[in-house]
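A reminder before we start the practical. When you read a complex entry, don't treat the lines as separate problems. The point of joint prediction is that each chain is placed relative to the others, so the output describes one connected object in space. Small molecules and nucleic acid strands, if listed, are placed in the same frame. In the example below there are two entries. Take a minute to note the order of the lines before looking further.
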Amino acid sequence: GQQVMQIPQYQHVQEGEDFTTYCNSSTTLSNIQWYKQRPGGHPVFLIQLVKSGEVKKQKRLTFQFGEAKKNSSLHITATQTTDVGTYFCAVTNNDYKLSFGAGTTVTVRA
Amino acid sequence: DGGITQSPKYLFRKEGQNVTLSCEQNLNHDAMYWYRQDPGQGLRLIYYSQIVNDFQKGDIAEGYSVSREKKESFPLTVTSAQKNPTAFYLCASRSRYVRTGGEKLFFGSGTQLSVL
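Here is the predicted structure of the whole assembly.
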C-alpha cells in the first residue's frame, strides 16, 4: 500500500509555543486528509487538501499541501492543552483504500 | 442521532475462539472500513468494503474475516488464526461529495479486544 511517513512521532510542547508535524510520501498524492485522536477517543476528521500548494486554516491550525503534492504539514500556533492528542495524516492508495501515517502524539506542558 | 455504532466496547477472547465485532452505520454511506490500532501506533487497514456484497483485503487481513450483507452493517470476525489479536479496533464509513471530490471518514468509538 501507499506509504506515508509522519514526523516527529512524539512532540512535547510548552503551552503557548508553536509546533509543526509533517507527512511525507515518495509518490504524488491525489489528496491528503488530517485527523485528530484525543486520548482514549477515536479519530476525528480535521481537513482534506486536494490542490498543489493549498493552504487552509482552522483557527490556530494551518494545513499545507506541498507544490509537488508529495508532502503536507500541520502547524499549530500558541499550543493549548486542548491540542493534546495524536494527529494522523491519511492518503488514498486507490479510489477507496485509505491508509494512515503512524501519527504524531502531542503532549503539552502547562 | 446519526453515526457509527461499534459494539461491544470491550471484548475478551479465549484461546482458539472466534469473536465478532459489530459495526453499524445509519449515515447511508457505501464504503466502510476496519482498522486495527496497537498502543502508541497508527491505524492499519484490515478490510474495506466499497459497496454491499463486496469487500477487499487491506494491509493486515490475515486472521480476520468480514461480510457486507447490508449497507448498514460491516461485522469483523477475529479468527483463531490471528495469533496476536489484542488491539483497539476501529470501524469507519466514508462520505464522499462527488461534485467537489471531498471525502472524509467517520469513525465509531472502537472496540478494545483482549486475550484471556
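Discuss with your neighbour: Chain A has a mean pLDDT of 94. What might explain this?
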